[in-house]
Amino acid sequence: MDPRDAIKAIFFSEFHPTAGPKITYQVPEDYIKKDVFENVHAYIITKPEIQDKLITINAFGLKIVGCPVCIEAEKYPRNAFLFNLCFICSDTSHTSQYEPVVKKLSTYFRMLECEYEYLSNENTKFHLPRILSEILTQLNNTGSCTMPVNESTTLYLKIIPHHSEPGPVQPHDVPILITNDHIVHSIHWDEATLQILPYVDGFRHVKLISVESGVEIDIVVICIQNMIYHNVVKLISIFQYSNIYTVTPVINQLAVDTGLQQECIQYILRSRHEREPVFRDVFVLYCGLQPGTTVKDLCSRYHPSKLNINERKLIQYGLMKGFIRRLHKYPINVEPSSEDDSSTTRLITSWFTGSHHYDEICCLGEISYRELDHMIDDNPNVLVCWK
Question: What mean pLDDT do residues 235-261 have?
């Protein structure tokens, strides 16, 4: 968890029959000052219209997330017990991941009050500071909390990190696992995902995974998007020895981070029974990737196999970490296609707009790179843009 998004404090607020809205307990103590609370209490102990709804207040440099609760019963003064348990973060924090936890806590505490009068009875209520302190510590340290409240009730809380919706997955995209097998297999995947997982190797593209796994491509796309959402897969481009790559400024991280260097060496090993490559050789290979130099050229110059380096894994790792990026070829047809061309040729040249690169065209048209090269070389009206 990003320390900037940590929970700064938790407080329990209630409506006192004579004093009105007040903070009864907070950890750490006095985190919310009286004057601040007086300015926001209308959104913490609320009117019926917004009770049992998640509320986020951004004011006074704080972000407060709560879910106001009202329990109606004749046993209470004014025939109702109103309370709210709120998380406090900094005003720049992302707090969406805390909303389900706050909602769940409000449900737990409603149940404790309804069944045991836990919150309104002074004999049990005094346990709240200890409970709030434990919740704050466990959630910030581990992202989860298991907290016994009484003999029959235990709180089970877990922060689920918020992920943005994954972007589109194209047939030519190559999914690659970015976490270890233990984490991947600990997630309860659907049957379709389990069927395609063995084919997600960082070399097969989405369309090929569909063909080899026997799963419809639309289903494969959905499965890959789901794995991206769970942060176990990243998309890279198709590997070929004719590909051209170039380094990015991120390569500087590799130059100074010894832990990253060792991780890289372990990933790109050709054989674990031979001597590990020297990092200097690895770095020279990455820096040798530049416009005009294909992977084949790089291998001819430096012979990575003699250095116990797997050049395919070298490229994989560089793309995953952002050390390198692929330079794609975009064909551009500057003249309309001839009527004498075959329907297949006209279809393929319709993608020569400068918006579709080789990977995409070859995958859509089901032709090889060599065939596409010949088609472009034989057509003087087609230019190629590298970007």
Answer: 96
